[in-house]
Amino acid sequence: MRLLRLILIVFLASCSAEPGATQPGSTLGPADRQALLRTAEAHAHDMPVPTPAATTRPLAAVTGRTITYGKVGGVPVSGYLVRPQKARGRLPGLIVIHEWWGLNDNVRDEAGRLAAEGYVVLAVDLYGGRLATEPPAAMKLAQELTANPGPAEDNLRAAYTYLDKVEKAPRIGTLGWCLGGRWSLRAALILPEQVDATVIYYGTLKAEEAELARLRMPILGLFGSKDRVVPAATVSAFQATMQRLGKDVDIHMYEGAEHAFANPSGTAYEPQAAGDAWRLTTAFLKEHLTR
To answer: What is the pTM of this model?
Structure first.
C-alpha cells in the first residue's frame, strides 16, 4: 500500500505539471489532493465493468437520447436524456452525475432505471466526452476536473436550466456516485435556492458551516463504514454540522460496506447495501420530487 501511495503521489504531481492539464489560475489544494489519493487507492485494481445497478431491468420501458443541453465557454455540452416511454406531460427532473470513469453506458443504463421511476433524467458529462477504462486514466480526468471546477459548475447550471426551461420539470433533484456524489453536493451548493432534493452516494463532503448554511433542500447521504475515501468520521462531522444548522439531512451508514458499493460501474458492488440504498433513494426522490 505504501508503494502504491508513492506511485499515486508521483502521478498526481506529474499530472499537475502536464501542459493543458489545468487552466490558468486553477488549483489543487491539500484536501482535494488527499481525496484524489484515497479515491485512486480505493480503485487501484478496479475496472468499469457493469454492475447490477446498471443491468437490473427498469421498472418500465424508457426512451433515451443524447442531447446538447447548453454551452460552457462557448462549447456545446452533451449528455443523455431519458424518460419513461409512456409518460405524458411534465415530469420531475433529476440531474445524474457519473463516477470517475465518466459518462459510460453503465451510467446511461442506471439513468434509465431511475427514469423508469417517473422522472426525466439528464445524465451530465463533466469530462467533455472523455472516458476512462483504467484507473490511471480515470485519475487524470478526476484530477483535471477537481483542479479546474469552474466549467463543471457551469455545466451543472446548464443542465438545471435545460430541465427547468425546456423540460418544464416542476421539481429538480441531483444524484451522483463517488466523484458524482461529491458533485451532487456541489450542485446543491451552487444552486441552493433551485435544487429540490440531493442524493449523495459516498461523495467527499464539506463540513464548513458557512458553505452548508446555504443549503435549503433535503439531503440523503449513503455511505459505507469501511470506505477509505470518505471515512466515517468525515460523514459524522458533516451530519453534525448539518443538524446544528437545522438542515433536513438523512445519513445512512452501511456497516461493512466499502467505497463504490452501489456504483453502476466497478468491482466493489455489494448487493445488500446497494439494494437498501436503492430503496431509500427511490422513496426519498418520490417524497421530495413528486409531491
So the answer is: 0.92
